[in-house]
Each structure stands twice: as structure tokens, then as C-alpha cells.
Design brief:
Layout (H helix, E strand, L loop, with lengths): L1 H27 L21 E3 L4 E4 L4 E4 L6 E2 L4 E2 L7 H10 L13 H5 L23 E7 L6 E6 L4 E6 L9 E3 L3
Antiparallel strand pairs: 1-2, 2-3, 3-9, 4-5, 6-7, 7-8
């Protein structure tokens, strides 16, 4: 009986040490822009969750989605995004996605709100993205393909300044980041 009591007493210490080790590993893998992160928060999109496509894309392994590293209007330089992001209203963003071809792939689309929200890095702000995976990303609103069911003329976006999901008028001009489903 004494042995069980000793193990029970040691459990909180062992658990704390284990959680601290896990926390340190997860936090170190999400790169925020200098001064724009909170290292006390677990990384929600650590770099280890992504595989570099070396063509300006990354595969988000947990979701099986292939993301453009740069928003529309920017171009991949091999280590970052150059140029200015295009500002498009919601309809134009959807239309551009329908005709977009990159590296022979024509199945690019505007992500739905859950998909776009899956790349928000909770420990970063301005932008709320892992800067190692999505360098030079603009902050502000990024369109999703999800229309607002409760409000005509509005659609969902992700505000990458703060990482929040919000409804905006579809006539507003925002940036677009395209996605496609990975093929086996």
C-alpha cells in the first residue's frame, strides 16, 4: 500500500514535468513575427504539421489540405512572398479561384471558414499565422467561400490580425489565400 501512495504523491510532479516538456516542444515550433507572439500559449499550427511543397505550397498534414504560402497577388521567391496582395470583393475572389492554375494544378479554391480557421496560429498576432510557414502574410481579413446564412450580402472571413472569424459585406475588398485537397 505504501508503494501506491508514493506513486500517487509523485504523479502531480511527473505530470507537470511532462506537460512542461510537451509545451516547450510545441511552442518552439511556431514562429511568430518578432514581438508578435505569446510563448505561454501552445502552438496551434507548429511547423511540424506542414510539409513544404517547394513550389510555393505547403501540405497541412492534419487536414490534408494544400495551401498557397502567399496570398493572391504575391509570388513565392523560394523563401518568402514578394509583391502586394490583391484586394478582391468576395465574388471576384471566388471567380479568380475557379480559373487559377499553379504548377499544373487547376483545382484551387477559396477555403471555407473552418478550413481557413485551421491555419490560424493562436500564439501569434499581426498576423495570426506561423511566419515560418506563411512568411510575409498580410494581416487583416481574408475571404472564405462560406456565405453568411443569417445575413444576405455577407460572407465569412478570417481576420489574421487577431485570428478571429467574422462576417463582412461581400462588396468589401479583402485578400484571398487559395487551397486545394491533396491527392493521394
Amino acid at each position: 500500500m505504501r508503494r501506491i501512495e508514493t506513486n500517487i504523491r509523485q504523479w502531480p510532479v511527473a505530470m507537470t514535468v511532462g506537460l512542461l516538456a510537451l509545451s516547450a516542444a510545441n511552442v518552439s515550433q511556431a514562429q511568430c513575427r518578432p514581438g508578435n507572439g505569446n510563448s505561454d500559449i501552445f502552438a496551434s499550427t507548429p511547423a511540424s504539421d506542414f510539409q513544404d511543397g517547394s513550389d510555393g505550397t505547403v501540405l497541412h498534414v492534419p487536414t490534408g489540405l494544400v495551401w498557397q504560402r502567399c496570398t493572391l497577388g504575391q509570388s513565392w521567391t523560394g523563401n518568402g512572398c514578394a509583391g502586394s496582395a490583391d484586394l478582391l470583393d468576395w465574388e471576384d475572389g471566388l471567380q479568380v479561384a475557379d480559373i487559377h492554375v499553379q504548377d499544373g494544378q487547376s483545382d484551387w479554391r477559396v477555403p471555407d471558414r473552418n478550413e481557413l480557421n485551421s491555419i490560424v496560429e493562436n500564439r501569434c498576432f499581426l498576423p495570426a499565422l506561423n511566419d515560418q510557414v506563411f512568411p510575409d502574410a498580410p494581416g487583416g481579413a481574408t475571404w472564405t467561400s462560406s456565405p453568411a446564412a443569417s445575413q444576405s450580402g455577407q460572407a465569412w472571413s478570417v481576420d489574421f490580425d487577431s485570428g478571429t472569424v467574422e462576417q463582412l459585406a461581400t462588396s468589401q475588398e479583402n485578400v484571398v489565400r487559395l487551397v486545394r485537397t491533396a491527392r493521394p
